[in-house]
Amino acid sequence: MSEIPKHYDPQSAQQEWFPFWEQRGYFNADPGTGKPPHTIMIPLPNVTGALHMGHALNGTCQDLITRWRRMQGYEALWMPGTDHAGIATQAVVERRMLEEEGLTRHDVGREALVNRIWKWKEVYEKRIVSQQKSFGASCDWRRIRFTLDDVCAKAVRHTFFKMFRDGLIYRGKRLVNWDTFLQTAVADDEVFEEDIDGHFWTFNYPVVDESGAPTGELIRFATTRPETMLGDTAVCVHPTDERYTALVGKSVKIPVNDRVIPIIADALLADKEKGTGAVKVTPAHDPNDYACYLRNPHIGIINILNPDGTLNEYGQEWEGIDRLAVRDKVIEKMSNLGHFEGVEDRRIPLKHSDRSKTPVEPYLSDQWFVKMDDHADGKPGLAQMAMDAVEDGRVRFFPSRYAKTYLDWLGEKRDWCISRQLWWGHRIPVWTGKMHEKGFMNLLVGEPSGNPDSKALQAIDAKAEVKVNYSDGSSDSEETSGTRVVDANSIRDVTFQTVSRDGETWILACVDDGHPELEAKLEAAGFEQDPDVLDTWFSSALWPHATLGWPDIDHNPPLNEEELAKQTASPSTVDLQPSTENTVLNTFYPHETPADGNHSVLITSRDIITLWVARMVLTGLYNMRDIPFRHVHVHPKILDGFGQTMSKSKGNGVDPLDLITKYGADAVRFSIASFAGETQDVRLPISYECPHCETLIPPKLYKLGAMTVVVPTTLKGEFPVPQGQPKPTLACTNKKCKQESQFSTPLYDPEPNQPVAAVVSERFEYGRNFCNKFWNAARFAMMNLEGYQPGEVTADQLQLEDQWILSRLSTVAHQMNEYLSRYQFDAATRAIRDFTWNEFCDWYLEMIKPRLRKKEGAEQSEERAVAQRVLLAVLDSLVRLLQPFTPFICEELWQRLKEIAGERALPNASADANAAVLTPQACADSVVIANWPDVPRSWQDESLEKRFAQLQDTIIAIRNVRAIYNLPPGVPVKLLMRTTPDVAQEMQSVASQFDNLTKAVLEAAGADVERPSGSASFSLGNADGFIPLEGLIDREAELARQQKEADTLRKHIKGHEGKLNNESFTAKAPAEVVEQVRETLAGLKKQLQSVEEIIEDLS
RNA sequence: GGUCGCGUAGUUCAGUUGGUUAGAACGCCUGUCUUACAAACAGGAGGUCCACAGUUCGAGUCUGUGCGCGACCACCA
């Protein structure tokens, strides 16, 4: 057996077994197998870039649950895919294009840009998939989807159409975060705040009378954005502010453009305590001012900006100039006109676009919205439907506290802005044009004479009624008078709303998927398609049913041929031919009733509970009339050692692939699982690894302007790097190395072909060490299988240690199910690790060594055979129990074991008490598809475990003595035990283990054993042990040791006595608790008595 | 400002419904290359469970307040 290496080699196992699993189709999940379905939908990674630690944690949890359920006999689907991530991806491609070629998107045009992004997507999707596979992700890769592929596009288009038809989608105005660089609106969550050094200017506006002549009064106000005064439409004060009461209703003149605007009172906008108490109102460029405008619509609204951030015609002489340049001009002009009062420096929190890193402008624009509130007739709207699903328990959160995040957010019922001014994404399927003179429907289906239905269609045009009239302020009263919705039953593929603008009626026509002829007709009639695309979350919200082929109900969704080709032989017995119904959707989309055995869980991070989880529930209920998952598990977030979020821009991110290379996929998975508990955050302290000698150099925080980045403590040099100067390095702290090297940082790109210190974390040694331990345990077993014959094992053949390990195995196997079903990965990991290492390796393997060495004689060989069979049974169960955590090492061991011991004795779950405990069975072709261990609960024996613990305590005490007296391991000692007859008998029966485990020869055990002089002693609760060490004993040291022990005991005795002397304790505490304290006290007193006797002896 | 979470050994974390002498891993100290494993084995040291108050016979655990840290949401003339 010398060919089994001493160390587990993760890289070769990873290379060998993943293709093996794929080729055999083990990860495939298909309808019609008769197994209960289990569904996990992957939280879509963006195609923007590489995977990070968050993905690694997220993926590990999902793979664990999927592999566990698969072994339990579920048809376990883990659906993979990627997200087109509109803004993020377009921004990254645009930025690269600008940097490398100096081109903007307007230079290349819509089609060319989209083509470039598709190319980017192909590269990055491949990379992401290969990263996931290197982790061992057991997704059904044949089913991989992309949010822009045809299947998803159809779902998106149809959902939009349905919502539009149902009056749930409307067009309105909103003040958005406008990215002037990318020229698009960005969502609130795509904006980050950064404090910048700015100024706070104070100006005044002159109050004027009705003829426009100055009255001599002035209103003073302060602003951080003077240029917006060009768009002011009012000055606002608090209604109860006596300083201004007399002025309300009068007007002021804006000196820079001579526009006269009213002075209004608004309690929500103005604050008496702040500044001068007066504030200028710029509705089109400030969210609060916009809200004020909605309350006071008579003041009007003026947009002064072009989409690129330059001023429009309202900028007058500054039209076409960037807003920031205009700021200085406005100040200068105000100053020249005598209305400038002062300036102070101030740190200003300024919103920046996450994508372009440029400041965003509040900007009023036309957007599309999904109505979230309840219907006018009181029926629950989308938000309420989604809230109900969680409130009545159809969807459950783990940990449950996250339900609050979900419910609070949905409870606001704020309309969902779904349009984005981008080119990369699902284009909004709405065409706008003027009302056709012969009616809209005729336009699409032809003249009345040529079409028998056209009369009916004209009637539809005529009776189109106003169904939704929203006056929540989202609409501009001048442009949109209301939304008209036709009764769309007769025309199923197009629906429209009418809008009156500039006295004319305009049609907003929405066309369902699959009708290019209708689109062509519209375009021929001068209709134009909306240039915007949909919010990325609109398509990802449909993920759970879109990927399963919805809205097609008459055939299954297509499989990915490239992935299919990787499978040489599909073991699936299921007919994959096209069916006449969508059995994939029917099988894997969850149902509300748990009785059908269907299980499903969404495993995700807390920051997208609102953006994604809530919206999946909402669209699931809307489209499928059923929830998209029964459980939502929210896992912790990984922070660095300073408690900061890991991110590329901070330089504290660990690359999972670096970890896999360094520690192996199994080790990384196992470590990750060990810290995936119910807490909110997990800290993962990082270090830099010297590329020359692998020494770890700790990090420190480094302030650079407003940014805080992470750098090595031994940083040499400074940031920012001055032109032409060498880049900063880290100095290795290893005295033998001392070399300097570049390090991974966002602040520079390393020089090519020079070594770079990577960011790593020592915490993954936990998993690596465990894998190696497990490997060696299996190696030991395989080295001791010489002459192994499969055969059953009966209860009477089991030794104490066999009974004990089987009892423990049963306990642990059941714990695993409990922990995993509650998504407590950390607890499950601890349980299996402790069992493997501390019980199986440290005790069981050590205890059976003598039996395995026995070779002579029939009796001996039977003893050996039993030991081998039990050993294999436990090892076999362990390989199965660990498979979801560490699949590669488990497959490697499974296959090796299969060669040596293809039939192993497995737990016999039979209820027959006389049946064998273990019966041999052939093992499966792969551990991935093996059965999850079903270990009988009846094996658990508490009293046996207690007796065993006594044996362990004795052995530890003997080893302690050996260590204190520095006795070499090979030197035997004598052992005398003073104890009750029954314990003495027990000791005698395991005497060989004293010898085996600690080279102690049990000379005597019984009640009348006396302590030999010159002995080291130890006292356990119900036994005292003596080890004669004539000549070796250090009387003083031994005395001191015993005194210390006695002191500890006295302290605890005092505590317990205190409790029992407290009458209210004995009166009020439960009897069993009091009894327990009494027992413990008695035990402690007995132990103290022994120790005191020993002390007396010694002195 | 609102909501949620966290504060336990040098470090990272466990600690079920309150109830034996508060645990683990890493690190540290002392031995050991003992025939599976030095990525290991054996032994050991190390804790006023953030503070104060309350509930209780009993608080690491429950309640309140304070301090420190973090996240999400809202806001910031």
Brief sketch in words of this structure:
This protein is α+β, with helices and mostly antiparallel strands and 1099 residues long. It is 39% helix and 20% strand.
Structure description:
Mean pLDDT is 84; it is low at 448-452 and 462-490. The chain is α+β, with helices and mostly antiparallel strands and 1099 residues long. A hairpin with a 6-residue loop joins strand 29 (687-689) and strand 30. It is elongated, with a radius of gyration of 38 Å. Helix 1 packs across helix 25, helix 22 (800-821) runs parallel beside helix 24 and helix 29 (1035-1061) packs antiparallel against helix 31 (1071-1098). The protein binds one RNA strand of 77 nucleotides through strand 8, helix 7, helix 10, strand 28 and helix 21.
Attribute tags:
six-stranded mixed beta sheet; 31 helices; alpha+beta; seven-stranded mixed beta sheet; 39% helix; single chain; 1099 residues
Q: Beta-sheet strand percentage?
A: 15-25%
Number of strands: 42
Low-confidence stretches: 448-452, 462-490
User: Alpha-carbon distance between the termini?
Assistant: 56 Å
Alpha-beta content class: alpha+beta
Number of helices: 31
Question: Mind describing the biggest β-sheet?
Answer: 7 strands, mixed
Choose one word for the global shape.
Answer: elongated
